[in-house]
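are you around this afternoon, could really use another pair of eyes. what follows is a protein written twice so to speak, once as letters and once as C-alpha cells for the fold. i want to understand how the C-alpha cells follow from the sequence so walk me through it. anything you notice is useful, everything is just below.
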Amino acid sequence: MVISFNQPAFIPWGGVFARLLHCDRMVLLDNTLLARGFTFVNRNRVKTMAGALWVTVPLERAGRGRQMIRDLEIHEKTRWAKRLLETLRHHYARSPWFDAVLARLTPTLDDPDPHFMATVFPIMESLRRYLDLPARFLLQSRLGAGGTGAELYAAACRASGAEAILLPAAAADCVDWRQLQAIGITVNFLRYEPPVTPQFWGEFRGNLSILDSLFCIGPEATRRLLAASARVEPVT
C-alpha cells in the first residue's frame, strides 16, 4: 500500500488531488500544530473579475496560543459561510457546473458546528468523491501516528501497513527520505505542473483552488487534467 500526506486544507489546489490518483490513502495531519504566519491550511485562492482572490477561513485565536489543527475553531462560522457562498455565486454562477459543485459544499457550510475539521474534512472528502478519486483520507489523530518529519511518516506506515510513501516533489529537500529508505520504506515523489485551463474573467491565473477548475471545466475534465499534469518520480 502507498500512502501520502497532507495537512487538512480548505478547498486545496489540484496538486493535493493529483496525489490521490497515485496512492491508496492520504493521511491528513490534523494532529500537528498550525504553522505560524502564512499557511494554506485555512486559505486558498479563487478567480474573480479583478484577478485571484484569497478566500480565508477566520480562526478563533485570542488567548489560545499555538493550536493543533484538530482543535481549531472557525470565528463566526455562519456569517463567514454566508459570505463565502455569496462570493462563489457572484463570480461563478454562470458555470454549467455551479449548482453541482455548490451542492458539494453547502451541507457542511450550513452546519453551524464551528470546529475547523468538521468543515474542512467533509469538503475535502466530498470533492474527492465528486472527482471519482479512489484513494481515501485517513486522519492522523485516528491512525495514532506521532512525531515529525521522517519519524512521523515511518510511524504512519507502521500503523497503516503501508510499505511505500508518495510525497510532493517540493518535499525532496526538506524530508530525510534516506532515513525512510534505510528502514525499508519505498519513497516516491510526485511532480505536479498545474495545467492551463479555460477560466472566467480574463487572463489565466494558475495555482488556484480546485474549485476554479471544477466550476470552469467540470469534474471529468478536471480529473483528466490532474492525471495528465502529474508524474511519479521514484527515488533510487
